[in-house]
Amino acid sequence: MTPPARGDHEARRRDVSEAVGRVLADRGFGGLTLRAVAAELGASTGLLTHYFPNKRALVAHALEVLDRQAVGRRRPATEAVGAARGLPALRAALLDVLPLDAAAAADNRTWIGSWDAALGDAELTAGHAERYRRARRRTAELCAQAQELGELPPGRPAADLAAQAQAFVLGLVVQALFAPAEFPPQRQRALLDGFLADLATGR
Amino acid sequence: MTPPARGDHEARRRDVSEAVGRVLADRGFGGLTLRAVAAELGASTGLLTHYFPNKRALVAHALEVLDRQAVGRRRPATEAVGAARGLPALRAALLDVLPLDAAAAADNRTWIGSWDAALGDAELTAGHAERYRRARRRTAELCAQAQELGELPPGRPAADLAAQAQAFVLGLVVQALFAPAEFPPQRQRALLDGFLADLATGR
To answer: Where is the HTH tetR-type domain (chains A, B) (predicted)?
Structure first.
């Protein structure tokens, strides 16, 4: 194996990103330090400060890595509905968030772990806020479709239905991670279906 | 001012707890270290290891401190309903969790900050799981009362209604902390009332 060409910045950045991903998977955000990433990479902490001048830059990069992983790991639920619209698409999108298997549980555990670091920094808070805003916007589009299709009642703004749905799944994720035995996949699905049935029969 | 009597362990423990509380309020769980608590206390790290042999013991104590603070800071909503039962009591208990003022936002921010540390340790995870289990049990009692009073439909187990309600409020807390401008107190209340109306008109 030949060593990477000098100046091959892309390859080096990919190595750094992968090392950040492994540290996150192993230790969560609480264990994410320049020192830990350097050790994972077999590099010096000095080299790392070239990429990440401070802890915030490292955390911000870790959040980007998580974003890319999440896109790469779309759960079958989403694939299955494909071009589906309205309530079935809403249900699939919400199922996609829940920790229904080990990979989804690990992803969620890492995301929840990021909240402490993110809330401690205005810029990171803004980044997270924007992520959740985009997710609510996508959810609101599905809610609006479901209203047009007569699957959800027309009386409330789609943005409120979406905020209610996002609140429900985020909170269910937290409960399921702390008490997986009380929230096996079957019960998570049943609770989601109960929530959606209430949403559909509400005003 | 005389120095505290030697062996006045209670007073010293109280000082330590208060220092832990101040570090949490200032820096969150990410900034909770023996060194930070020692500095806050004007004591040596060595003295602190007498109380907390390791990081987990410190985090566990911090969670107890938070528990006591939460009990001491019951919001007016709960006081107002006093002996109320059923749906109004359920609504008041859920309002009590939401970040409707600065103190409640600060409490919630610290709790969310504890999730990363708690999920990284089996014993702390079990402690959090038990906290949320107790909260669901209390919520389920209120849901069962509301069902008996005909305020909530009788078709679903009270435990499921409680899990759904706890999921909703936890997730709403997370969204409101990241985007307070989008979730002012008035909208949080309106979303909670929308959720409860759906729960009441569901099967």
So the answer is: 10-70
Question: Are the Cβ atoms of A164 and B190 closer than 8 angstroms?
Answer: no
Residue ranges of domains in chain B = 9-68, 74-201
How far is the C-alpha of A157 from the C-alpha of A165, rounded, in Å?
A: 13
Kindly determine whether residue B125 and residue A178, on different chains, have CB atoms separated by under 8 Å: yes
DSSP 3-state assignment of B151?
A: coil
Residue A7: predicted pLDDT: 60
CATH class of A75-201: mainly alpha
Burial B154-192 (b: 16+ CB within 10 A, else e): eebebebbbbbbbbbbbbbbbbbbbbeeebebeebeebb
Under an 8 A CB cutoff, do A112 and B116 touch?
yes
Handedness of CA A115, A116, A117, A121 (dihedral sign): positive
Between vectors from CA A159 to CA A156 and to CA A164, what angle results, nearest 5°? 85
CB contacts, 8 Å: B28 with chain A: 116, 119-120
What 8-state DSSP symbol labels residue A75? -
Whole-angstrom CA distances from B183 to A32, A47, B101 are 30, 42, 12
B74-201: CATH homologous superfamily? Tetracycline Repressor, domain 2 (1.10.357.10)
- Weakest-pLDDT range from A20-29, A84-93, B121-130, B170-179: A20-29
> Are B142 and B84 spatial neighbours (Cβ–Cβ below 8 Å)?
no
CA atoms within 13 A on the CB side of B177: 28
- Nearest neighbour of A197 by CB, restricted to B112, B115, B203: B203
What digits encode the pLDDT tens for the residues B82-122? 558 899 999 999 999 999 999 899 889 888 988 888 888 88
Point out the residue among A128, A171, A202 whose CB comes nearest to the CB of B178. Answer: A128
